[in-house]
Amino acid sequence: MEEEKIKYVVDNTKILRLPARKIATFGTTNVNYYLVTKVTENVGEVRKGKIKVERPLIIPPPSSEVSERLEGFGGFQNSHVFLAFFRKYMRGLYYNFKFRNELEDIDMVYNPFDQVIKRINEIVEKEGRSTGIIQGVDVETWVISLTKFIKKLVETSIESNITDLEERDFFEKAGYEKIKFKNHKELPRNLKLKVDKLFKSTEKGRLKITELEAELIELGVYHIYRERLLNFFKKE
Predict the structure, then answer these.
(1) At 100, phi and psi to the nearest 5?
(2) What angle, rounded to 10 degrees, do the helices at 222-234 and 209-219 form?
(3) How far apart are CA 36 and CA 136, in angstroms?
(4) How far is residue 23's CA from residue 25's CA, in Å, rounded to a whole number?
(5) What share of the chain is helix, strand, coil (3-state, %, to 5)?
(6) What DSSP assignment string belongs to 165-194?
(7) Residues 78-109 pLDDT 10s
(8) Most C-beta atoms within 10 A of its C-beta, which of 9, 59, 60, 142?
(9) Using an 8 Å Cβ cutoff, are 216 and 184 in contact?
(10) 221 to each of 21, 29, 173, 187, 228, how far by Cα in Å?
(11) Measuring CA to CA, which residue among 93, 103, 87, 53 is closest to residue 230?
């Protein structure tokens, strides 16, 4: 699959409904989903499945390849083009998780597409589970659409994950925060300039996000620049 095709699918995939459940800071989170794709005007494909997000951490070492962090993604997880896309699209977020896709069912439905979407929403409401709904582009590229859903799910969970870790003194106990300054105003000018250079290097691709994290931790300013760092993860 060409990169242009992947970009087209990402741009045109719609996340119609995000699950209420956030990804847990520790352990495994199960997230249900329906992925609905129009085949023709009156025919649609509905994939029902579950994403298992395992052992999420905020600052783990990038010790394995992307392919080792994916299960149940069909032939895509062996595609160099897809794996390169996944690494770039997730922008470091894949280091934090292992994603396992468990497909439960695939149905072909014969109704106008808008009616199919309406019916899926009704089913989700009735089930009362934390379930997402994704509108895909075509049946061959369902994994790309699912990846967009996964990224959105991770992004909406990051801040609550960090809060959980802070409440448990995770960063301080692990030696991640060598706190010398309480806020930005207390920082010496030369330290501010040094941190700004680190962020600019990351923006230009000369420094990896994980390396930027490590530098902020070492300088004892991670807690001050946390929100700015999160913006790197949230950018598409």
Answers:
(1) -120, 120
(2) 170
(3) 6
(4) 6
(5) 55, 20, 25
(6) HHHTTHHHHTT------SSGGGS-HHHHHH
(7) 788 888 888 777 765 555 678 889 999 999 99
(8) 142
(9) no
(10) 31, 31, 16, 9, 12
(11) 93
Q: Report the distance separating Cα 149 and Cα 165, nearest Å.
A: 24
Q: What is the largest CA-CA distance in the chain?
A: 66
Please report the DSSP string for 12-23 in residue order.
H-EEEE--SPPP
Greater confidence (232 vs 49) lies with 49
Q: For the CA atoms of the chain, what is the radius of gyration?
A: 20
Q: Residue 45's closest CA among 94, 116, 130?
A: 116
In the chain, the DSSP E strands lie at 14-17, 28-40, 43-54, 70-71, 98-109, 131-135
- pLDDT tens column, 8-59: 999 999 999 998 777 766 667 888 999 999 998 899 999 999 998 876 444 4
Q: What six digits make up the tokens of 60?
A: 């783990």
The neighbouring-strand residues paired with 169 are none
User: What single DSSP character describes residue 24?
Assistant: P
Q: Which residues, 6 or more positions from 140, have their beta carbon under 8 angstroms from its beta carbon?
A: none
Q: Rounded to a whole number, what is the distance in angstroms from the first to the last CA of the chain?
A: 20
Give me the residues paired with residue 102 across strands: 50
The pairing of strands 98-109 and 28-40 is: unpaired
- H/E stretch holding 212 reads helix 209-219
Supply φ then ψ for residue 169, to 5 degrees: 55, 30
Query: In the beta sheet, which residues pair with residue 54?
Result: 28, 98
